[in-house]
Specification:
Layout: E1 2-11, E2 20-27, E3 30-35, E4 41-46, E5 51-54, E6 56-58, E7 81-85, H1 101-112, H2 116-122, H3 130-139, E8 145-147, E9 149-151, H4 152-165, H5 172-188, E10 192-197, H6 216-229, E11 233-238, H7 243-246, H8 248-257, E12 261-264, H9 274-287, E13 292-296, E14 302-305, H10 318-321, H11 328-336, H12 338-346, H13 354-361, E15 367-368, H14 383-390, H15 394-402, H16 404-407, E16 411-414, H17 424-431, E17 436-437, H18 454-465, H19 474-480, H20 483-488, E18 505-508, E19 514-515, E20 519-524, E21 528-532, E22 535-536, E23 538-543, E24 546-550, E25 553-554
Parallel strand pairs: 1-4, 1-5, 6-7, 7-8, 9-10, 10-11, 11-12, 12-13, 13-17
Antiparallel strand pairs: 1-2, 2-3, 5-18, 14-16, 15-16, 18-23, 19-22, 20-21, 23-24, 24-25
Helix pairs in contact: 4-5, 5-6, 6-8, 14-15
The chain binds zinc ion.
Amino acid sequence: MHDLVIRNGKIVDGSGTTAFNGDVAIDGGVITSVGAKAGAARREIDAGGLVVTPGWVDIHTHYDGQVTWDPYLSPSSWHGVTTIVMGNCGVGFAPVQPGQQEFLIGLMEGVEDIPGSALSEGIKWGWESFPEYMNAIEKMPRVLDVGAQMPHGSLRTYVMGERGARNEEATPDDIAKMAALVRDSLRAGALGFTTSRTMLHRAKNKDLVPGTFASEAELLGIGRAMGDVGHGVFEMASDMVGADATMEWMIKLSTETGLPITFAMAQVDSNPTGFRHLLERVRNYNANGAHLVPQIPGRPTGMLMGLQSSLHPFIAHPSYHAIAHLPIDERVARMREPQVRARILADEPAAKDPVTRYLLTNFAKYFALGDPPNYEPARETSVAARAEREGKTPAELTYDLMLERDGRELLYMPFANYSDYNFDALREMLLNPATALGLSDGGAHCGLICDASMPTYMLTHWVRDRSRGERLPIEMMVKRQTSDTAKFYGLWDRGVLAPGMKGDVNVIDMDALRLHPPQMVFDLPAGGRRLIQRADGYKYTVVSGEVTFVDGKATDAMPGKLIRGPQPAPRAVD
Ligand SMILES: [Zn+2]
């Protein structure tokens, strides 16, 4: 008698091999047979006409705070994600000295746009070291598995105090201390170390993330400590300028330790073919012993501009500023008054920062997202193109669009990977074997981006719906977010449906699978705001053999665990 049998499904097993029909049996949380007809079970799921896949492994999230109060880690768990890796981009909440908590919250609020009040109220601090943080997480029940990475921002602040926070150069003694703590954390089960080297990531007070200007000595000192332990991914948010552009330290470090270094790669409008050159360089370096992994998203990092968002084109207009504090319905009523509209539209935005200014006025990249949300819209549907046809200014059209749905409408602004107004560049990156799929940023950018739904989108858009270019096979899209991401983080016990592997499974109705439009809700601690997005079509999600969601509803099962370090492959599939 099996614990659970999923019968007669179309099995896309995560390895990339062609889908086949059959049963999946799970016993004691572990898969015991795949494909062959399975005997009776205490619980049976009829998967006739449905697709059966491994649970998704999302390696780029920022749930470091939410993980301490929300056992569901939504929205990711609503999208078939059964394993998340957090602590990315150099920001997180451990290690922490007494008195540094608010500093780390300000850092997270500034960099990842997670409301500071929600973090302050939500996080029950009960740790100082990173291993203590992991212990605290481990004690909580949760619906999915969680992997932790140690962030440079907190580590540097912990070891160097004010000097670290102010980005002063680390002394050899500082580096030795940081290296020792990284070693301890990896040995306690951290899956990696992360850092920020981008000018875009700033704390609430506009300071850059501690570690942004870390010297080669500091990066190598920490990286070699990882090499001593023998596991861990080195993740980095970077603009790939300066010393990062030459990739010399990354080549040196990854060659020496054999450990991967991953960084975000994107197609940028200022150099739309640059990514191709970067991929070519990575291919050459890796052929000579380096281990560099450009991380890519499955759709453009999509900013969602609306009246409740962190950014929208009128946010820096003085006349808007005068009513910005009003509750949304009152604000919408005022904005509908012709004089108010005229005044706001006549204002010059007060934003001085050129990046912000560009984002707020780049109307050729603004689109009505619609329902179902269209993340690959044609150029002629941009706000700029539509405004021209309608004889309005782009700002006027944006203003009117944002007032639709009682002022809840969101305009989609693809921030990168959309230079050609289609996904052909992204498709090229997805097909490149050197890249890893990530960057959903689950749990972060609460007021502007909701890409935690990306795992669902890989199937709805890339496999099924794409009409403006070639689609991609389901076998490949499933592999990209299961075995590929799991192995990259050393999690050889999951990501493939095979005997001996962890019983993490999605049962999906491909015909019914759809994304709802994103919406702003105020359900974080202290009423904090966040964008969420729901999906239909996940019939069942299973974690360690326990059904966690049925038709999008949680079952209250809490089989999720903290992952401690790399997980070996089961013998059966060695
Ligand atoms: Zn990130």
